[in-house]
Amino acid sequence: MKKNRWLFMIIAALVIAGSFAAYWTLFHRDDKKTAFQAEAVKRRDIAASVQATGVIRAKIGAEVKVGARISGRVERLYANIGDVVKKGQLIARLEQLDLQAKVDEAKMNLKTAEANLELAQKTMQRMQNLYAKDFVSKDKVDVAERDLKTAQAQVNQIKETIRFNETQMSYASIYAPISGVIASVTTQQGETVSASSLNVPTFVTIVDLSRLEIYAYVDETDIGKIKPGLEATFTVDSFPEKDFKGKVSAIYPKATIQDNVVYYITLISIENPEGKLKPDMTVNATMFLSKRSNVLAVPNKAIKREGGKKVVQVLENGKPAGKTIKTGWKDGSYTEVIEGLKEGSVVITGETINTEKE
Predict the structure, then answer these.
(1) Distance (Å, whole) CA 55 – CA 67
(2) Residue 30, in any domain of the structure
(3) What's the pTM value of the predicted model, to 2 decimals?
């Protein structure tokens, strides 16, 4: 009886274990579903292009260092970094007391010289009248004529001195030569500056942000494809989601070598109406050589080579199927499809992703 009880318990345990295993197999098996990264085939504009990195620079004449042509103490400084200024706007003023004093002194000397000139003219007229009546010799007339010319020369010299001193005084007021933004200030109010023919102190630097261009470094293998007038787009790190537009304006004939690679500087004219772009920003530029509009295209990463042919994997009823295609133009992201696919077909663009069902 006891032996039968143990046998019954063993059989029951086996039945329970078998049931548990069946349940686990049925409801907890490793169920993995295969998914694909895919994209529909549709019509796009395909453009052959050349890509290059570069930097934004101010055009010639668009960045100006403004300084003082005379020495003196900075009485007022009206500019701060970031200020927008217009051409002709007053930026700084130097102390003018000593300059005004020189002008005033020259004007006083002019009055004395003009009085001497008037006296010399009267003397000359008197000597000529006396000489006509033989009351004085010719020598007296010559002396009077010499004194008249000397007085006239003194008047002229003092007038030039006044003009020079007034010009020097005008240099005490410093105006913006172009419209733009104050990029840097290198002096301060109350500071004394010293100017000479070898040293012109800079007060501020003004940059016209509407006159910028890109220095794009194009590889020597691509420079033969580039010509002025080509359309271009570019991005900057500060605004990675925005595409800016430009146009190739010139190509430097002399090469630049960087890390043993030969580049040619290509200038790209750009517009900056919002003022977002700044000098020295790094850019990634794309110059479009030619363009085909409204053509069927697939992502470049969807195309594989098999036996010398170009093949894509197309999803049909949820399963991949290989399709041989004939391609045309290609840009940085897409390739034109001439034969082998229809618009709306879905091609696999990446590796499969396995997701486990819980």
Answers:
(1) 27
(2) no
(3) 0.64
To which residue do tokens 């190509």 refer? 251
Handedness of CA 146, 151, 154, 159 (dihedral sign): negative
Residues, the chain: 358
In this structure, what CATH number is given to the domain that contains residue 254? 2.40.30.170
Q: Are residues 178 and 279 in the same domain?
A: no
CB within 8 A of 315, min separation 6: which ones? 36, 38, 321, 346, 347, 348
**Listed residues 272, 291, 310: the one ending a domain:** 291
pLDDT in tens, the chain (358 residues): 545 555 556 665 655 555 555 444 444 444 555 677 888 899 998 877 888 999 999 999 999 999 999 999 999 999 899 999 999 999 999 999 999 999 999 999 999 999 999 999 999 999 999 989 888 899 999 999 999 999 999 999 999 999 999 999 999 999 999 999 999 999 999 999 988 877 788 899 999 999 999 999 999 988 988 999 999 999 999 998 899 999 999 999 999 998 888 999 999 999 998 889 999 999 999 998 877 889 999 998 899 988 888 999 998 887 888 999 998 877 778 888 999 998 999 988 876 555 554 4
The two tokens of residue 146 are: 């010499």
Give the tokens for residue 188. Answer: 């301060």
Q: Write down which residue in 206, 227, 242 finishes a domain.
A: 206
109 and 180 share one domain: yes
Q: Are 171 and 66 in contact (CB under 8 A)?
A: no
Question: Are 81 and 191 found together in one domain?
Answer: yes
Any idea what the CATH number is for the domain that residue 307 is in? 2.40.420.20
192 belongs to a structural domain: yes
For the chain, what is the largest distance between any 2 Cα atoms, rounded to a whole number of angstroms? 183
Going by C-alpha positions, the residue among 182, 201, 197, 177 that lies closest to residue 94 is 201
**Ordered DSSP codes for 11-68:** HHHHHHHHHHHHHHHHHSS--EEEE--EEE-EEEEEEEEEEEEEEEEEPTTSEEEEE-
